Amino acid sequence: MSVPLDNLYHWVESLLPDPAVLYVFRPHGSKNISDCEWLNDYDVDTVWKMPAIILHDQEPLDWNFYKHPGQYLAHLKKRKYILPLYNLLFRYFINFNLKSLIISTLSGMYDQVILVHSEKNSPDLEQYQQNEFICVYYWAHAIIARDWYRFAKHDTRLNTVTKPHNKFLIYCRDWSHRREYRLKFLELLVKNNLLQDSQTSVMHTNSKGVHFSQYQFENSAFELHNPELIDCVPLNTFSSSASADYDYIDFVNTQISMVLETVFDGDRIHLTEKTFRPIACGHPFILAAGAGALEYIKSYGFKTFAPWIDESYDLEIDSVQRLEKIIQAMKKIQCLQDRELEDFLHQVKSIAEFNKKHFFSDEFFNQVQDELKNNLSLAHEQVKKSRGRHYLEIIKLSKKYKLVDQMFQRQEKTQFVRQLRRSYLNAPSNPQADQSL
């Protein structure tokens, strides 16, 4: 994205109760450990005194992605760490997932790390919570979307009275990894004769260079029964940055947005700017996301469209059946005609206008901001109770064996490694320490 997300992170920093070291991924959108760095140029003489905060609010959490040693080796090489201390620590800090960033740079004296995220009902989130990460939730994309779509609040073109060319507006670009369900959705769309009433397109070759006919599904339940149906869907040539903007013509020429979120499979809820774009533009929507996503939205003061739209799909845990229920909801809308259609559009448009007003309101912004501020405050109180154990042990042993001066013998190295391991294994905050040495 070309949008300066550092502005968002400086806003997060402004809500902190006390100073902290913030880690961000640059370029934005990357998930690689080697691309995670300090938000600011912190004073290296005082940085060790402050809690560490990893800002992982843009992408879904992925515990297993950070279990591979190669990630951390690339991080060391990029930072050009050559002291023996870092080489010795390598076998240890690769065991602590994202917390390894802080251990490897000795930039925090606390054993616990604050992880800022933006998802609910996540098995990966549970993994972090069980391994002594203090997880801080806020709806990051709500703040981002208010910035990206701010002109929609005043855009009178969105109020243009015209006869829409299509019933459904469906943005569907990439379909790799977590988005693979979108291929199944498009197959069902074509199979149920809904494509003729939809404005949509798709990449026939995904961002990894794989054609949909050759794609190996991670979830076999999404495998295509009739892959040739995808050929009927027009080719998409938009860039990934297109989601940071809106095209008013798309919204005045369609009746309902069919939102295909990044995360759909299972009941993990991670709602992005994709959900907020129709809300900002005053457009009714159906939401393909984790089970319970509509209830999640309502908890922030928004309204959904039942009974005018059958939203029973939101309660369906099985992912394929949820897709099928969404298709059936679309079929019901497709069949509406004349006065029945007029009444339907009047009702859902009224709800959409309410949602747009609420989205740009101070009430909604303050709810998101206060939630983050309170969660950060609680996290700061908790992290300071874990002060010092591993940091001080590392410093003590490194001085004892003169590792900073690169003056050590093989026997001293062995003693250092053994004592460091003993310290880690005895600490409940590091249950996955390497026991192989």
Structure commentary:
This protein is of the alpha/beta class. The chain has 2 domains: 6-137 and 388-425, no CATH class; 150-363, 3-Layer(aba) Sandwich (Rossmann fold), CATH 3.40.50. The chain is 39% helix and 9% strand. It has 15 helices and 9 strands. It has helices at residues 6-14, 69-79, 84-93, 100-105, 123-130, 140-148, 181-191, 248-252, 273-280, 293-298, 319-334, 338-359, 362-383, 389-400, 410-425, and strands at 21-25, 36-38, 52-55, 113-117, 133-137, 166-170, 198-200, 254-260, 285-288. The strands form 2 sheets. Strands 2-1-3-4-5 form a 5-stranded mixed beta sheet, with helices on both faces. Strands 7-6-8-9 form a 4-stranded parallel beta sheet, sandwiched between helices. Helix 6 (140-148) crosses helix 9 and helix 9 crosses helix 12 (338-359). The radius of gyration is 25 Å and the shape is globular. The protein starts with 5 loop residues before the first helix and ends in a 12-residue tail after the last helix. Residues 404-408 and 428-437 have low confidence and may be disordered.
